[in-house]
Design a protein that fits this description.
alpha/beta; 9-stranded mixed sheet; 311 residues; 37% helix; UDP-N-acetylmuramoyl-L-alanine:D-glutamate ligase; 4-stranded mixed sheet; 10 helices; 23% strand; 13 strands
């Protein structure tokens, strides 16, 4: 019997995400933490968690170190996610989200543990082996200290002839360099796409034009997450453009919504669905992610209710 497609998320700069809840944010005054919690985070871990929730066959390649790295391992395994750990020196980072009672947030991200040359060779070797074993790959998140900005580009180049589909979510110069290596699907948000295009994208027409330009470089798909405006999927070679949004919802949190969007799109694409269904799944998951606290997942019932409101 044919095996279902397998996805491996490559998360090069993971973190423990810590949320502190306060009644208000006061400058130069004492802010009392009313509640706090911690969970395995970073974009790649969020993508893997959503893939697992959506029923996708998913594994996670992740460099970890120190007590924080051990904490992440325990949490991810408790979530049922199979992980491939590349041990690194030093502690994996902790990112802090401060959430006020009105829902406004401040976010503080540490740079992360450094990957030495031996760690990077281990990552390259693992990625090559996974591609040879038939895995398709999601490259997600920041690169972390000391890794060259062409690191994602190098990973894509390494597995170019393997037949693996590659899904990319990063920003800045790392995105510009990686796009040239022609990933199967790129998922920027509006701001990241504007950075790549070198201009502000205020209208949906400008988003469409920039996304088509990026697709012209990759030869593949570009999925743009647009917050309250849903998402847009384009492919220049296929002359395909589609835009969907969900009905307005009361947003609880936006942290991780883009990761849910990517996870759902990749899961749908690998299941053999058509591109319209990739987009529908992406908007559904991205919207659903705004309905729960950071690091948590909504119910499948809530996802179905949101899917019914996609237009």
């Amino acid at each position: 019997m044919k095996q279902p497609p397998r996805l491996c998320v490559v998360s090069l700069n993971p973190a423990i995400d810590a949320e502190w809840r306060v009644d208000d944010l006061r400058w130069e005054e004492k802010n009392v933490v009313l509640a706090q919690r911690r969970w395995a985070g970073g974009k790649g871990a969020n993508v893997a968690r959503w893939l697992n929730f959506l029923g996708g066959k998913c594994e996670l390649l992740i460099p970890l170190g120190g007590a924080t790295g051990h904490e992440i391992q325990q949490q991810l395994r408790a979530d049922g996610i199979r992980i491939h750990v590349v041990p690194v020196r030093g502690n994996t980072r902790v990112n802090v989200v401060i959430t006020a009672s009105n829902g406004r947030q401040m976010r503080f991200n540490q740079p992360g543990a450094r990957l030495g040359s031996a760690n990077w060779r281990a990552v390259l070797g693992r990625v090559q082996k996974l591609a040879e074993q038939g895995f398709h790959l999601i490259l997600s998140g920041s690169l972390g200290p000391r890794l060259p900005l062409n690191s994602y580009a190098k990973l894509l180049r390494t597995i170019r002839n393997s037949g693996a589909r590659t899904f990319l979510d990063c920003d800045g110069e790392a995105l510009k360099l990686a796009v040239a290596e022609r990933p199967f699907l790129v998922k920027p948000n509006r701001h990241e796409l504007g950075q790549w295009a070198g201009r502000s994208l205020r209208s949906l027409t400008s988003v469409r034009n920039a996304a088509l330009a990026m697709s012209g470089v990759t030869g593949g798909w570009v999925l743009v997450s647009l917050s309250a405006d849903g998402a847009m999927l384009v492919n220049a070679a296929e002359q395909f453009t589609a835009h969907m949004r969900a009905e307005r919802v009361n947003v609880v949190n936006t942290l991780g919504a883009g990761d849910a969007t990517l996870a759902a799109a990749a899961n749908s694409a690998m299941s053999g669905a058509n591109p319209i269904e990739w987009l529908r799944a992406a908007v559904t998951a991205g919207t659903a992610a705004t309905q729960c606290e950071p690091g948590r997942l909504v119910s499948h019932r809530a996802v179905r209710a949101i899917a019914a409101k996609i237009r």
